[in-house]
Amino acid sequence: MRTIIEPFKIKSVEPIRLTSAAQREAKLRDASYNVFLLAAEDVLIDLLTDSGTAAMSSEQWAAIMRGDEAYAGSRSWFRFERAVREIFGFRHVLPTHQGRAAERILFSAMCSPGDVVPNNTHFDTTRANVEYTGAEARDLVIDEARVPSLRHPFKGNMNVARLRELIAEIGRERIPLCMLTVTNNSGGGQPVSMTNVREVSAVCREHGIPLYIDACRFAENAYFIKLREPGYAARTPIDIAREMFALADGCTMSAKKDGIANIGGFLATNDEALSLEARNLLILTEGFPTYGGLAGRDLDAIAVGLHEALDEDYLLYRITSTTYLGEHIAEAGVPIVQPPGGHAVYLDAAAFFPQIPPHELPGQALVVELYREAGIRAVEIGTVMFGRRVPETGEETLAAMELVRLAIPRRVYTQSHIDYVVEAILNVWARRQDVHGYRFVEQAPMLRHFTARFEPLNGDSVPSR
Ligand SMILES: *Cc1c(COP(=O)(O)O)cnc(C)c1O
């Protein structure tokens, strides 16, 4: 059989609503052309993020009902701890409400001003939490990762030579830990090879630097290793994941990704002293160490979800549906980050709209067109998100790339939804020459993409509020 089907049937459905073109035009104007300001019910296919947006299985909903809400030492906690130990193998497990809470606790315990934390590419909350301690977050991804059209099987790999150079340059004392993000979210959802994890681990061990894995998409990464790395084709994803984590000293995790849960996360480590300090920080802001800001029912849903994320049928469907979207639009000439990632397809908006210069926000223009065309919500990852207005001159600093991310929620959409997305993108592609840029009319000094207001540069102005 050639067709790879969704390995589930649907027990509960949530209606989605198709709006008319006129309605979408009005919604866009009301939202000042910022899709973060749209109401979710006005969106037909929501590809804003894969975080916390997954569909839970019947087993997870059953686990929700089994949830034990005892304050301390609940049965849910022991099931959660067992699942994390079985897969990740680390001795100490600390539950947190999200991945970023695990990051905050880890970096507050380990980093000091003047330190440098290397990573293949820091995710934005990871970078922010490193910088909050006064340390510097340094991205050391391989050069191939910075060229969208270039294909490489493990574009998330760290440049090991540059890691060695960094250690030689600033000294081991200023590097409290090294991190690897699997898959590399900010770099296009690209995987890291086992060979690379092994090499990074060897360099870290040689210098006594602890290695932590940002494990959010560990199951997708394990499956890419199975598909692409020699010697792993016959291995199971859980076995590959265990081999990877055995090369590290701990991990941070957002269960909103490969935990297939709607909330949750954890910090895990083999370092006894660190675990004691982290536990104290946990009690301060998250909660008692056997629940860490989560309800017992959340812990139970995550315990089930972590194992489901490693199911081979699920992973085949997951990676195939993302690749399917990427390849169908790329075949028609649409420029994307190659190859498609595990959780998302990234459109290269600068190449999509060569007539729109970066300061006229081509990524924002593409996000608007996808909603205008078909009610699809994507997210700009370019100058709107990463650029800044220089207060003195009013000029925009530009991002390195102008990308638009289509993140696929886990187990939520079927192939016909994806076919619809392909069709919509190709329709916008066909009329790409007629699309104009945007300018900011209002923006916050930080994290401006969430609340900014825009105006199209084709003469239509936004009615004043
Ligand atoms: C989502 C994410 C985080 C942060 O997790 P939250 O649960 O959103 O706090 C950290 N790192 C990576 C790679 C992520 O994708």
Q: Strand sequence of the main sheet, in spatial order? A: 2-8-7-6-5
Overall shape: globular
Count of the domains = 2
Oligomer: single chain
Query: Which hetero compounds are present in the coordinates?
Result: pyridoxal-5'-phosphate
Helix content: 25-40%
* Annotation, overall tally of beta strands: 16
| Largest β-sheet summary | 5 strands, mixed
Radius of gyration: 22 Å
CATH class assignment of the largest domain: Alpha Beta
Query: What is the name of the CATH superfamily of the largest domain?
Result: Type I PLP-dependent aspartate aminotransferase-like (Major domain)
Mean pLDDT: 95
Q: Number of DSSP helices?
A: 16
- Enumerate the spans where pLDDT stays under 50 for 5 or more consecutive residues: 461-465
Determine the CATH topology of the largest domain.
Aspartate Aminotransferase, domain 2
In short:
The chain has 465 residues and is of the alpha/beta class.
Question: What are the key terms here?
Answer:
single chain; 465 residues; alpha/beta; Aspartate Aminotransferase, domain 1; Aspartate Aminotransferase, domain 2; five-stranded mixed beta sheet; three-stranded antiparallel beta sheet; globular; binds pyridoxal-5'-phosphate
Structure commentary:
With 465 residues, this protein is an alpha/beta fold. It has two domains: 21-50 and 311-456, Aspartate Aminotransferase, domain 1; 58-308, Aspartate Aminotransferase, domain 2, CATH 3.40.640. The chain has 16 helices and 16 strands. It has a five-stranded mixed beta sheet, sandwiched between helices. The chain is globular. The N and C termini lie far apart (56 Å). The model is unreliable at 461-465 (pLDDT under 50). The site of pyridoxal-5'-phosphate has 15 residues, from α4 and α5.
